[in-house]
Amino acid sequence: MTTDLFMALKAKVTGTGRKIVFPEGTDDRILTAASRLAAERVLQPIVLGDEQAVRVKAAALGLPLEGVEIVDPRRYGGFDELVSAFVERRKGKVTEETARELLFDENYFGTMLVYTGAADGLVSGAAHSTADTVRPALQIIKTKPGVRKTSGVFIMVRGDEKYVFADCAINIAPNSQDLAEIAVESARTAKMFGLKPRVALLSFSTKGSASSPETEKVVEAVRLAKEMAPDLILDGEFQFDAAFVPEVAEKKAPDSVIQGDANVFIFPSLEAGNIGYKIAQRLGNFEAVGPILQGLNKPVNDLSRGCSAEDAYKLALITAAQSLGE
Question: What is the layout of strands, in order, in the sheet containing 287-294?
Answer without folding.
Answer: 233-238, 198-202, 264-266, 161-166, 151-158, 287-294
